Amino acid sequence: MTGGAVSIGEAIAFWILGPLALAGGLAMVFARKAVHSALWLAQTMLCLGALYMVQQAPFLGFVQIIVYTGAIVMLFLFVVMLVGNESVDSVIEVLRGQRVAAALAGIGLAVLLVSMLGRAFAGVTAVGLLKINSTGGGNVANLGRLLYTDYLFPFELTSALLMTAAVGAMVFTFTERTKEGRLTQRERVEARIRGGRPSPLPGPGVFATMNSVATPALLPDGSVAPESLSELLESTDRDRLDVDVRSVVSAGAEPDARALRGPVSSAAADQEGQE
Amino acid sequence: MTPTEALLADDPLWLIILKVVVIFAFLMVMTLFMIWFERRVVGRMQQRPGPNRVGPFGLLQSLADGLKLAFKEDIMPAMADRGVYILAPIISAITAFAAFSVIPIGGEVSIFGEHTVLQVTDLPVGVLVVLAASSLGVYGIVLSGWASGSPYPLLGALRSAAQVISYEIALGLSIVAVVLYSGSLSTADIVAAQSRQWWFVFLLFPSFAVFCVSMVGETNRAPFDLPEAESELVGGFHTEYSSLKFALFFLAEYVNMVTVSAMATTLFLGGWHAPWPLGGGVLDRGWWGPVWFIGKLLAFLFVFVWLRGTLPRMRYDQFMALGWKVLVPGSLVWIVLVSGARALRGSAVTPGEILVVGGFLLVILLVVAFLLPQRQPEERTHEVRTAGSDYPLPPLDLVVPPPPPRRTAVGAGVSTAAASGPDGSTNGGQPARQEEGHGTT
Lengths: 275, 441
Known about the structure:
The complex is a heterodimer.
Chain A: H1 8-30, H2 34-54, H3 58-83, H4 98-123, H5 130-133, H6 138-148, H7 152-174, H8 185-194, E1 217-218, E2 224-225, H9 231-235, H10 242-248, H11 266-274
Antiparallel strand pairs in A: 1-2
Chain B: H1 3-9, H2 13-45, H3 61-70, H4 82-98, E1 108-111, E2 114-117, H5 126-147, H6 151-182, H7 187-196, H8 200-203, H9 205-218, H10 243-268, H11 288-310, H12 316-346, H13 351-371, H14 432-440
Antiparallel strand pairs in B: 1-2
């Protein structure tokens, strides 16, 4: 079986897996949601892996599934999931001439692929893997031997390249958060104990007369505890809080000293009552 | 072609279907059994009986629970992505079952006159099948979290997937030494290699330890059950699932547990072979294989339950640090050692030379270690005292401070303060009469 003869099983597998892979690729391009795109890509990768297995390259097939489907497409999924469901692709061209360059590169790649495939179909005779798989320890052992003898240098070079890429990505990601900037747990404890206030800030006042967070807490001597008020409230414009205040001030009882503001004007109170 | 492959190659179709059905039934029964077993054993460890009402010893409890689960209402959240939501539990369950197809359960037997091996299939890359199945199983987790359309499952799924992916690396590295020693990736060959020499648990104990830790992490079980964390989170990635879809996730979790245990048995404990004194005897062939195999499997499953009953859950950063900073580098160093040992054994170096060179290196290492200046412990007088932990302690010479003198003056701003008693208590609005009553007590 050195020529191009195709067994029945292989033909059946091809005619099932091939269309599935093609459909996955097309659906990836046309899918609306990014997650669906990634899933279709995973289907294509799976089909390719299965096709490799059918063509007597079991190691390549499973590595394809583990590495491409299990790791790379999974990373795509991670990113896409975190980006969110509703995000839309931006149509603004950030880089000048990007589209033209992309179109040229795409056409170039297509020409390259077509010419390569054409040469493969026309000029190369298939050898088949049966012979190499049945000698010298089989598929995996032969692959390993080749990788660590003839192809040792390219193999190590590729791994060095990937390592550099990974380390570079880490460096770019973690420049902001160096160890010096962050407080350790011990330092935080000390800052808190020595900072004058080991306890949390006091909460707002009792809600007997008001249920607004703007009501300050009172100290035992009756004075206002300024720390009990949120800085956010302090910096908020007074008139932005008016609606809230009006909605909680009842028309009946007069607010006392603990209330946020003095007696409500009778007109406003009447208005409240009508509403 | 190995003898196992040769025996499997002429299996008729009915035999293959029979094996697949038996494996499926075995895994289903093991799941039902494991749920019961786990509840009983954890109950025993916590001084309570566990389920004991349905059937003898409560054995049918998980069957009853499973039936109840199937008849529950199937709820789908409004925000869910329909197709993916249904697809996710299916992926989880299928990959969990598929991994078991390469596990050798027994040796050569005769079924209805057909000589075969108790194994569905034997691939030259059998170990990779298990890894591939578990890496595809992550899809079930991630997709279920995303498709539920709610933030809690999404976060749970991300945690879970990060955990499975990082522990898969340690798992894969721990297998490398086994592959080096057995010279094959096929599970049947690995079992055969262990019957010729020692079990790999003795030869390659560090690999075994790494494999055991990472298989617990890989299956999201206690003490590494951070994605689910029943007592802290809602339920992780399957929060929004109910009825049969939830049952599929549950099934996948337990089948995964059985699969990694079977994998550990195959890789390190000699697979279906009998233990040492019986090895090679009449008790070590034919239908005795499944007996030994299931015995070893149950031992691993018991350890899973034991861990859950004993250990507290780890913190997430500790867990990730264990995986990436301990297990992965440790495995790499161990692989280098194993490869070095094998290379030396193949070469013409005598043990004496190895000892001399090793001793020389050791002396250099010790000298360097002694010559390095010792790091002085930092002076920490200015710091808050702690007892080993990072939390402050009160000083040893702590005296209880005297009670503050009672206030005599009352701050302004409270109108009723004037009504307080002559002792100047700050009871605010309390009537004076009660104040006096307090004063007498």
